[in-house]
Structure formats: C-alpha cells, structure tokens
Amino acid sequence: MAKKSVHVVPSGNQWAVKPEGSSTPTSVHRTQHAAENAGRRVAQQNQSELVIHRPNGQIRDKDSYGNDPVPPKDAKH
Q1: Per-residue pLDDT tens for 11-21?
Q2: How many domains does the chain have?
Q3: What is the DSSP string of 11-75?
Q4: Residue-range definition of the domain harbouring residue 50
C-alpha cells in the first residue's frame, strides 16, 4: 500500500496541511511558509511525499521523503 501524500493547500485566507484523501486538515496556518514547514515534518515522519500548491490550486512543488526507487532528476536540494 502506497503512503499518502501530504498537501499544502490554500484554505480561504490561510493555508492548510492535508493528508491525501482527507477532507479535514491536519493543521491550518496564516502563511504558506508556515504550512510548508508543518507539512514537511508530517511528510518526513510518514516517509511520504509533500505536495505544495499555489494559491490557485495548481501544484507548485513536490518533495519526497520516502524510499525512492529512482534517484531524483532535479538538483534543487
């Protein structure tokens, strides 16, 4: 069974950290940066992927904290 991704999504004037498939956020934050930090901790604990969305809902970035069978192609980190 695949581990569920953790999403950082806009929620009104705030940002929410939501596990994939959940309608209830794990936490809600005033800034996207604060939500990213909280989501990163959850993704690292669960060894899953962090998916960061833009204010319009489009995916902005992804970071994986699990055991990737294929090494990443980006040199961002």
Answers
A1: 999 999 999 99
A2: 1
A3: ETTEEEEEETT-SS-SEEESSHHHHHHHHHHHHHHHT-EEEEE-TTS-EEEEEE-S--SS--S--
A4: 6-57
